[in-house]
Each structure stands twice: as C-alpha cells, then as structure tokens.
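Table S2 (text version). Query chain:
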Amino acid sequence: MLPFAQGTLEFLTPTAPPTRQLRTQVDATILCDQHGAAPMHRFAGALVDFALTLIASAAIAALCWLSLRQLGIALPENAQTIYWGLGAIWGLVVLSYQGLFTMMNAETPGYRALHLR
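Corresponding structure-token output:
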C-alpha cells in the first residue's frame, strides 16, 4: 500500500429500525402525525391573504393615480376602463403575491397568522 493512499473506514453494519407496536386498529389507519386544517380555517387564511392583496392593490392604484395626476394625464371618463385597470392591478398583485411565497416555499401571511401549513 502506498504511504499516501487513503485507508479504509470501519463503519458499523446497518440494523433494521425497530418495529412499531400498534395499540389499536385505528393507529394502523393514521398516515401522518400532523392533522389537516379544516376548510373553515383555510378559508379564514385565504380571507386574510385576500385583504392583504386588496390593500396592496389600493396602494398601487393610488400611487398610479397620483403619478398620472402629477404628470397632467387625465384618467379615462369611461368607468369600465377604470374598473378593468383596477382589476388588472389586483390580478398582478395576486400573481406576484402567490408566486413569491411559492418560490420561497413558505406559507402566506394569512396561513402563518392561523398557524396553517
């Protein structure tokens, strides 16, 4: 053997994990130790997220309105055009909001407030 060659390591032989003893037949049907959230709790978390996106959309719309007013650009007289613009702002905020938390692999603030996963 060469003096600079790597020696062998002596690892322990792997052993099988201990078998779990079930107390009742119900224990055999449980697939996960974590409980699922009730639909009402998920709905409450979604409402918190909805409110946050509405607040952010209102702030962005107000900034856009102030910027247009500062530049001297008049808003359209047609209310339907304004509604479509507000809807587009809200849609972009929702997509950004959900996309951000999906990319971060984290729960949204609404789910975090209610301790949901």
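Notes on Table S2: Helices lie at 39-71, 79-103, 109-113. The two ends are 55 Å apart (CA to CA).
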